[in-house]
């Protein structure tokens, strides 16, 4: 009898404590609508995996999702990218691409600041660190700039590039028209940064497997 | 007597526990739903109060859908004449009339929709919770754009950057970025009203006028006058709240009916438990009567047992409501239109009192007949029972 009474009393006390707890000081808060508590820029999602894989890795039948960080290699990344490089985040969202269970490459998505808005791009990278292809996912550029940045000639020029490539517009990449200069530089810089960050060997902190390409 | 009542309940701990479990589930469900309804109403009232407006002028059509879309920063399919704004501003009851022009630009090839909102200075007065991030300023010309916090983060824009609308082929300069508000404003692009009207080729049209009155008591008169505006209709936020609450109320009525059925079944459980207890203890009750216990005392004893069951079940139900309230809220929320931001309370004081009283009444009512039966036992007959 006593244990039942004690149990009931405990439940009642816990409920009362939860329910009647003091309000606490009034603090004006701004409710975040799913904001980023770390202050890092929002993750750039991979919006059309099937379409991109068909273009970059035609034989792929599945992909995994990984989060990798290169915090420990930050100094090396800065050295390779140059002193002026801005590194928004030490986190990488990469997608190992599989064919019959064997890894045939990696897809990485990157968002860079173009002249008129964010430019999202999808890069396919071979196991030896070479770029197999680049696709534009989203951009908001004026027509001349949009036409150049999405042109086959420009995108094809990225194929075969590695972390050691210069990736300079007007150098090892086609020179853009004036209207597209700043955005083209942003794209080239973003690809270079991606390749370097992957080349330094980031640590994988999270894996999600079993995404099938339909 | 209470000690005796509790001892009697504990003679069959499993039976008592099962009865209590049934009671706890139905009380918990009822408490959650009552609290949810109160929390929804309170949250909605707070959101509407926070908006600082008492009414909206919207285009003719479904007023509540139009008003809800305007409040949530979604585009409307039709528009108002600009004259509606002038009439509203001239009304003696109106303190502020803030125009807005909202348009959506779908970009299906990129899987997104850009929402553009044309506003003027009066909107700033109506949204005191808007704060501009460091380095920001208000519009500085027709080609200015102010981005919501989420929009700026996604587009990697800061004050001074350029911004382009491919569909309207218009270039802008980002003059400001809003700090996160936790509302739909976070993902919108704000431009001067005339700019939005020009972008979407509707130079003298609006999608809504938000109105703050000099005194909320002037609502009825203002509504009657503004209802005469051609091409427009008035939606008062109390009406809108009432409509939303009706929608919630309809859903709640259905779920309450289910909860009350569960409560009724629990009452039957108490009845069953008490009747079984009376039958099992016939001899014992006979002995009690034989040694001098009055009918009234026997009645009160059984009533105390049934009240004890009800109280214990109620306490368990409150605990369940507190523990599982969030789960119930997450389940019900998708079915509620335009639910207020933020969590809704798991258990409010009013709900607790209502449920507690209901449980006590149900418990006592369910125990009435068994208590009466027990009090009517004749000692001689009761003692003959094996």
Specify the overall morphology of chain B: elongated
Overall pLDDT level of chain B: 82
**Helical content class of chain A:** 25-40%
> What percent of residues of chain B are in strands?
15-25%
**Rg of chain A:** 24 Å
What is the terminal separation of chain B in angstroms?
A: 26 Å
**Within the largest sheet of chain B, what's the order of strands?**
6-7-5-8-4-3-10-1-11
Order of helices and strands of chain A: HHEHEEEEHHHE
Could you describe the 3D structure shown?
The complex is a heterodimer of chains A (214) and B (386). Chain A is of the alpha+beta class. Helix content of chain A is 30%, strand content 26%. Chain A contains 6 helices and 6 strands. Chain A has helices at residues 2-19, 49-56, 74-81, 143-149, 152-156, 181-199; strands at 62-69, 91-99, 102-113, 118-125, 131-138, 203-212. Chain A has a 6-stranded antiparallel β-sheet with strand order 5-4-3-2-1-6, with helices on both faces. In chain A, a hairpin with a 2-residue loop joins β2 and β3. Chain A is globular and about 80 Å long. The model of chain A is unreliable at 23-37 (pLDDT under 50). In chain B, the strands form 2 sheets. Chain B has a 9-stranded mixed β-sheet with strand order 6-7-5-8-4-3-10-1-11, sandwiched between helices. In chain B, α1 crosses α11 (295-332) and α9 (237-280) runs parallel beside α12 (349-375). Chain B starts with a helix and ends with a helix. The interface between A and B is large, with 34 and 39 residues.
């Amino acid at each position: 009898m006593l244990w039942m009474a004690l149990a009931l009393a405990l439940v009642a006390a816990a409920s009362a404590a939860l329910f009647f707890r003091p309000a606490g000081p009034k603090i004006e808060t701004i409710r975040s609508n799913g904001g980023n508590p770390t202050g890092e820029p929002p993750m750039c999602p991979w919006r059309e995996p099937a379409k991109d894989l068909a273009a970059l890795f035609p034989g792929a039948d599945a992909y995994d999702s990984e989060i990798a960080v290169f915090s420990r290699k930050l100094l090396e990344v800065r050295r390779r990218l140059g002193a002026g490089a801005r590194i928004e985040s030490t986190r990488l969202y990469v997608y190992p691409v599989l064919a019959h269970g064997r890894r045939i490459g990696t897809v990485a998505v990157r968002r860079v600041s173009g002249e008129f808005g964010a430019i999202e791009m999808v890069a396919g990278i071979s196991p030896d660190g070479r770029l197999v292809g680049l696709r534009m996912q989203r951009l908001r550029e004026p027509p001349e700039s949009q036409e150049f940045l999405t042109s086959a000639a420009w995108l094809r020029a990225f194929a075969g590039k590695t972390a050691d490539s210069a990736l300079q517009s007007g150098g090892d990449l086609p020179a853009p028209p004036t209207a597209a200069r700043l955005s083209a530089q942003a794209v080239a810089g973003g690809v270079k940064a991606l390749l370097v960050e992957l080349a330094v060997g980031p640590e994988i902190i999270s894996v999600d497997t079993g995404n099938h390409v339909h | 007597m209470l000690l005796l009542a509790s001892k009697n309940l504990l003679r069959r701990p499993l039976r008592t526990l099962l009865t209590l479990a049934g009671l706890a589930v139905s009380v918990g469900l009822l408490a959650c739903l009552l609290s949810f309804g109160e929390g929804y109403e309170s949250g909605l009232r707070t959101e509407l109060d926070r908006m600082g407006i008492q009414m909206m002028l919207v285009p003719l059509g479904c007023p509540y859908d139009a008003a809800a879309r305007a409040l949530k920063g979604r585009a409307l399919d039709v528009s108002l004449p600009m004259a509606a704004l002038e009439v509203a501003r001239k009304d003696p009851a109106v303190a502020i009339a803030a125009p807005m022009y909202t348009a959506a630009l779908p970009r299906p090839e990129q899987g997104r929709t850009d929402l553009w909102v044309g506003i003027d200075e009066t909107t700033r007065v109506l949204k005191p919770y808007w704060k501009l991030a460091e380095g920001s300023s208000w519009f500085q010309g027709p080609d200015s754009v102010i981005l919501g916090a989420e929009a700026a983060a996604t587009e990697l824009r800061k004050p001074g950057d350029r911004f382009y609308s491919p569909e309207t082929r218009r270039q802008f300069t980002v003059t400001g970025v809003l700090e996160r508000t936790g509302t739909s404003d976070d993902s919108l692009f704000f431009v001067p009203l005339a700019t939005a009207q020009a972008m979407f080729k509707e130079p003298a049209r609006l999608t809504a006028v938000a109105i703050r009155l000099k005194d909320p008591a002037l609502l009825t008169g203002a509504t009657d006058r503004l209802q005469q505006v051609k091409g427009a209709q008035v939606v008062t936020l109390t009406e809108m709240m009432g409509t939303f609450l009706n929608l919630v109320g309809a859903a709640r009525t259905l779920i309450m009916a289910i909860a009350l059925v569960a409560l009724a079944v629990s009452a039957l459980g108490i009845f069953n438990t008490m009747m079984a207890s009376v039958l099992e203890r016939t001899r014992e009750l006979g002995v009690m009567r034989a040694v001098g216990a009055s009918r009234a005392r026997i009645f009160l004893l059984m009533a105390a047992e049934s009240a004890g069951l009800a109280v214990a079940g109620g306490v368990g139900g409150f605990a369940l409501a507190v523990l599982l309230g969030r789960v119930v809220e997450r389940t019900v929320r998708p079915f509620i239109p335009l639910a207020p931001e933020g969590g809704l309370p798991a258990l409010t004081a009013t709900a607790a009192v209502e449920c507690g009283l209901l449980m006590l009444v149900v418990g006592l009512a369910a125990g009435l007949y068994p208590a009466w039966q027990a009090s009517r036992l004749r000692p001689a007959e009761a003692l003959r029972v094996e």
